Amino acid sequence: MKFISKTLAEITSFISASIYTEKYASLNGLMQKIDARAKLVIVLAFIFLAVYTSSIWVLAFLFTIAIILSISSRISIRHYMSRVLLFIPLFTSIVAIPSIFSFITPGEGIISFFGVSITYEGVRAALFLIARVTAAVSFSILLITTTRWNELMNAMLFFKIPKIFVMIAEMSYRYIFLLLYSFQNMMLSAKSRAVSGIGATKAWKIYAPIMGAMFIKTHEMHEKVYLSMLSRGYGVEIKGNSRKMRIDIGSTAAIAAAFLTVIAVYMIL
Amino acid sequence: MNEIVMADNISYTYPNGTVAIEDISLTICRGESVAIVGPNGGGKSTLLLVLSLLLPPDKGSITFMNERIDRKKFENEAYMRKFRKRIGIVFQEPDVQLFSSTVYDDIAFAPIHFGWNEEKIKDKVNNVMKELGIEHIAERHPYELSGGEKRLATIASVMVYSPDIIFLDEPTSNLDYESKELVIKAINSMKEKRKTVVVATHDMEIIPEIAERMIVLNRRIIKDDSMDNISPEDMGAVWGKKAIKFFEFFMEQRHKN
Ligand SMILES: Nc1ncnc2c1ncn2[C@@H]1O[C@H](COP(=O)(O)OP(=O)(O)OP(=O)(O)O)[C@@H](O)[C@H]1O
Ligand SMILES: [Mg+2]
User: Which of A69, A203, B173, B255 has the fewest CB atoms within 10 Å, i.e. the most exposed one?
Assistant: First the structure.
């Protein structure tokens, strides 16, 4: 049980550190120079390609571009890769795991147990999917890492993404934060009051109510967070530091370059 | 008299049925400094939320700057925005107020949403951080801070836009003596600018230093008077015998100053 509580604590602090750092957004790198709206368009174009291509080479190429862009945006490669690696299993496992089994992707069995076999075709398909997700995730993370949250929200509003979605995104961003934070604290408080070296059943009895309590508590706090945001002018309109309507030449050029790349890759490969 | 906020017979009941405050009538004028005291669960935090126009009272009415705020206005956030710049509230729990990824961003939150230009934001944020002695934590993540640092950051995030009236809920909890001095100084400098200050607190040490008027609240108003008319026995009625001695001591200090 010590193992579980330790890893949970590590995971929460890792997630919160990697989602909520704006350290890289203020650096003077390539992606940071591009207007948030242009970046949104560019990244969507690449993700679109990653989702629709059927060539593994295109995916490899896209992944390479993402890495080059992140290097020229001064993101430490270690930080970047750890975030990409964090999100890949999250997205992939949901979709990929079932498809490796024979009754979903029929084919030549590799191993079989209890009548269910893992097929060669299934594994291939799963690997391809992982590659696809990796390419898409690397671009999303590039966007999130190099853009201030405020500017990203404004970019979404600019493209007439309904305000309610933007507000939901904004509030869930805060909510995950709060959830992680109170989870960490409640684990500590449980630890301080629980006897150590207890068995799994007993530990479950302690930790299960914590989960429940955590949601109630964060929900309550969340309402206060909302009030505190309201009191400081949040609501009707999200305002960022750069609220210029015009897009600069550099950002326009970046969009053009990205589109040319996407089209070229699509035609050639 | 120049009233800033008036409550007429207001009550607030939480959705679970707890009546937090009941039949409260009071008037707070521009430039006044008020301490709200009372036992735990006495309704102080609730009253601050209602007076700062964040929770609508379920009975009675509130008048802010000579404008009666009815329920329809309460529900129209676009309309309420014009009041938001004039009102500041520091919540009792810093965690609900710190939601940005750095302390700097959090302090800049209100100025950004009130649409100030970048230069002014930078200037004011840096000033208020200096005033409260927290420049060194500007780039830190709010959730990694100590209790006192969080407290100072939340005060900074409201003082930065110098609202006409500021509500502070337990502003000195978790603070060491040095930080407490800084907060008292910041409060007093707001008072010098003719801002209105309302403080809910259990910290009897700071009351004589910052407040001219005291409201004793235990769901209803028990007493509402100028500090000079508050007797140690009034305090004793709320907190028991121990408080009497304690309060006498601090009032002596006040008269010495
Ligand atoms: N979100 C809520 N839901 C239901 N009841 C609440 C809620 N918040 C506070 N209460 C109840 O309302 C009453 C007044 O609470 P309030 O927080 O205003 O008191 P307080 O004077 O600020 O107390 P303290 O000195 O402990 O901060 C209490 O009985 C409390 O249990
Ligand atoms: Mg309170």
Answer: B255
Among the atoms of ligand 1, which is closest to the Cα of residue B202?
25
Q: Is B102 helix (H, G, I), strand (E, B) or coil?
A: coil
Q: What ipTM was reported for this prediction?
A: 0.79
- For the stretch B130-141, pLDDT in tens is 999 999 999 887
Identify whether the C-beta of residue B35 lies closer than 8 Å to the C-beta of residue B213. Answer: yes
- CB-count exposure of residue A20 (10 Å: 0-12, 13-18, 19+): buried
Query: Which of the 8 DSSP states describes residue A101?
Result: B
Place of tokens 């309610």: A164
Q: Which two tokens stand for residue B88?
A: 């500041």
Model pTM score: 0.71
Cα–Cα distance, A103 to A114 (Å, whole number): 13
> pLDDT digit string (tens) for A167-188?
666 666 666 666 666 666 666 6
Q: For a pocket test of ligand 1, which of B18, B19, B48 has the largest count of ligand atoms closer than 8 A to its C-beta?
A: B18
Q: Which residues contact B70 (CB under 8 A, 6 or more apart)?
A: B61
C-alpha distances in Å from residue B248, one per residue of B77, B117, B251: 45, 49, 5
Cα separation, A255 vs B116, in Å, equals 30
The minimal CB distance from A235 to the residues B81, B87, B97 is found for: B81
The length of chain A, given as a count of residues: 269
CA geometry: angle B49, B53, B55, nearest 5 deg: 55
Do B138 and B81 contact (CB within 8 A), yes or no? Answer: no
